[in-house]
Amino acid sequence: MTLRSQLVLAGFALGCAPNSQSSAEGGVVSGTVSYRERMALPPDAVIQVQLSDVSLQDAPAPVIAETTVEPEGRQVPLLFELRYDPKKIDPKRSYAVRAGIRSGGQLLFTTTIAAPVITRGNPSRVDLMLTSAGGLAQAAPGELWGTAWLLEDLGGIGVVDRVQATLEFPETGKAVGNGSCNRFFGPVQISGESMTFGPLGSTRMACVEAVMTQESRYLKALQDAERYAIDGSTLLIYAKGQERPLRFTRTRPSGS
After folding, report:
1. 148-205, pLDDT tens digit by residue?
2. Which of 14, 116, 136, 214 has minimal Cβ neighbours within 10 Å of its Cβ?
3. Beta-strand (E) ranges in 112-165?
């Protein structure tokens, strides 16, 4: 037996075939980012793409990997390549990609629905069509004080019928509302497009399980809030780990 044959047999004895690819090479999700509006990207525009585990609708979506693309004068459609560690992927779970384009710290375009990838028969290449955030105008913080809002959708899972969850900003730095069963209250900080809530206290009444579950999810989403946007009479609050924002309709404008 030649030395080469001995080495090949030794390789099989160790459980590996010759010329096999190492898992250390990693996995890749690729595709394009684009939008329908006929406008050029500013010179400082930055594209951020994230791969998240979206298996559970009512839980935070852990970010598996992310990448940043600097167009440097190029215009859409723009290519992206997002590398991830295959060891972090569970074939039984669901994963999705989302993207946003920012300039000067402001959100210009964003995905409204994440694109499923990798597992459950989904591809590893996707073309993302982003939506303009121009209509999602950032309100001046002072315009929120004195307003009141009714929760219409809890991050894409709707709301319990005939149960009103609300959010009010009665005065600067203060938030109150109906969680679904109990009244809540606490501090809120608004700066630019960011919105963060301090510890929220609440009353302690008991309601039916479905209402209490909604209240728990609602208050957690507020505690995880990162930014907000105004679209006419609609308030959108984006919470960490949630693919879709909380959506409210205005019930009382500022100063009324």
Report:
1. 999 999 988 889 988 999 999 998 899 999 999 999 999 998 887 889 999 999 999 9
2. 14
3. 115-117, 125-132, 148-154
